[in-house]
Amino acid sequence: MSSWTPQRVLDAAADIEWVPGGAIELRTDDYRLVRYPDVVLDPTFHAAQVTWSRTARPLAEVIEEVTAHVRGWHLPGVAWWVSATSQPAGTDEALRARGAELIDAVQVLARELDVPGYVAVELVRDERTFRAASAVTVQGWQRAEPDEAETAQQLGEALQDLATWSSFRVVAFVEGEPVSTGGCTLAGEVAQLWGAVTLSASRGRGAYRAALAERLRLARDHGATLAMVKGRGLTSAPILLRAGFADYGEERCYWLPLS
Fold this sequence. Notes:
alpha+beta
């Protein structure tokens, strides 16, 4: 019998966190607020985000506290993620009552890692593969091109993470050109998949599935028993469901403008 109950999967999903270099993280008993650095922003990834909120305090009081921090950063609003683990239960309604609009939603998808597979996708282990993966990320997510200093810093961090196998990335090539990439953070038995993107001109050619399979293989080889990812319904979620992931519910993101 599997030890991965639905509640244990949802708890693991709530533990997925990303704090890139240069980020400001504010963590309380009631919420986690992150001000992400400009270098990782794109049209759908906002600078200020509440990644989770679970509070017994009056929610209006918590919202005021969060928006005060965001005003201090001179930002126009905050993206607030809501899921089945959010507390209180009326968080969606409270945000909408304050003028927030639903701007994004992802499915929490997971599968147990019982049979490792193999595909010929390269592990990001040096400057060549790192620059190839980064080029796909910048173009695929429409991010600003990092300067050489930022690239050197990110390369150093990636190689340091790989040395301890706390995190890794892969990059898929088609006819010698990098077209797809994706990362994985190993948190105990959980492989947290992130950052997967395939260039639009190369979609439908198996590059995404190849990069996914290699991440699953490497994660299993390094002790993971569950793979978890948050996928969008119009892009990655259908591929992930066909690959054996199960749907554990939706996380919704609201844009709360500052008045």
